[in-house]
Write a structure and sequence with these properties.
The structure is a single chain. The protein is mainly β. The chain has a single domain, classed as Neuraminidase (6 Propeller). Helices cover 2% and strands 54% of the residues. The protein contains 1 helix and 24 strands. The chain has one helix at residues 274-280; strands at 7-8, 15-24, 30-35, 42-46, 52-57, 64-70, 75-80, 85-90, 96-101, 111-113, 119-125, 130-137, 141-149, 152-157, 163-168, 173-179, 185-193, 199-205, 211-216, 220-224, 230-235, 241-247, 253-258, 263-268. The protein has a 4-stranded antiparallel beta sheet with strand order 1-24-23-22. Strands 2-3-4-5 form a 4-stranded antiparallel beta sheet, with no helix packed on it. The radius of gyration is 17 Å and the shape is globular. The model has no long low-confidence stretch (mean pLDDT 96).
Length: 281
């Protein structure tokens, strides 16, 4: 299968093994959780020049995982898996508040976002190998969409916002749902299943609708077509890739957080990522 050259953009062990996120702001700063620092509940920022620095320390009792940024609102949304929250951070002032809280959440893990600011959250229970799926409407109103799934993790919306993708890490399934104009879900179907023994983690789409999937333990990003067919696997230096995002000047740089190296890798693709293009095109 075709391989794309991957480079490391920060030194190894700049972040801890808990590195996750990632997300890029309008100025090209890249954010990821768990910067190597005196407290574990940190979010680090990597500047376009490659300098890693502390951005914020989350409140006591909170730990970040998936991150999404809405540049129109100047806000970052963080899945707080220990606090059962989605946190909102004002990028300019670094002010942190609870955007949404739900006691019934296991440990919100990853986030997807629509252009209108609707969030979707995966919610795994790792001990029980099951999980839930949530929607968070503007204003922080939380709605349970599905319970009794496998170990829900990576989550993404298609470029036309008509499809929601959710993967189950342990079961190695990716499910697709139809999204209504009001972001209700229906017509659940199996989109892709992996036969190997990797764990599935974060996912992002490009603007052609191809889905990029981190395979934790395998050290590859799987690129899957809109019809659910595996196109290629992109090899990384690290084995334990946790999540990815797109950015750069034209949205074709893919950034991957690497747990076993505590750093971030980058490779280029042909088509801009949706998470970049939805704010820049």
């Amino acid at each position: 299968m075709a391989m794309y050259p991957s480079t490391e953009i920060v030194q190894r062990n700049t972040f801890t093994s808990g590195i996750e996120g990632p997300a890029m702001d309008a100025e090209g700063n890249l954010y990821a959780v768990s910067l190597r620092h005196e407290k574990p509940q940190t979010i680090g920022r990597v500047t376009p020049e490659g300098k890693a620095e502390l951005f914020i320390v989350l409140p006591e009792g909170s730990m970040g995982c998936g991150i999404r940024i809405d540049p129109r609102a100047g806000s970052m949304y963080v899945a707080d898996f220990t606090g059962h929250n989605v946190l909102q951070v004002e990028l300019a002032t670094r002010t942190i508040k609870v955007y949404a809280h739900e006691d019934r959440m296991n440990q919100p893990n990853d986030l997807a976002m629509t252009k209108s600011g609707v969030l979707f959250a995966s919610d795994p229970n790792w001990d029980a190998s099951n999980g839930k799926l949530w929607r968070v409407d503007p204003g922080g109103v939380v709605m349970l969409l599905e319970d009794g799934m496998g170990t829900t993790n990576g989550i993404e919306v298609s470029p036309d916002e008509r499809t929601l993708y959710v993967n189950e890490s342990v079961q190695r399934n990716i499910w697709a749902y139809d999204l209504s104009p009001s972001y209700g879900i229906s017509n659940k179907r199996l989109f892709h299943h992996f036969e190997d023994d990797c764990l599935l983690d974060g996912m992002r789409c490009d603007m052609d609708g191809n889905l990029y999937v981190t395979k934790f333990g395998a050290g590859v990003i799987a690129q899957i077509s809109p019809s659910g067919q595996l196109i290629r696997e992109i090899k990384l230096s690290g084995k334990n890739c946790t999540n990815l995002t797109f950015g750069g000047g034209d949205g074709r740089d893919c950034y991957v957080t690497i747990s076993d190296h505590g750093n971030i890798e980058r490779f280029q693709v042909e088509v801009p990522g949706r998470c970049w293009a939805m704010w820049n095109i």
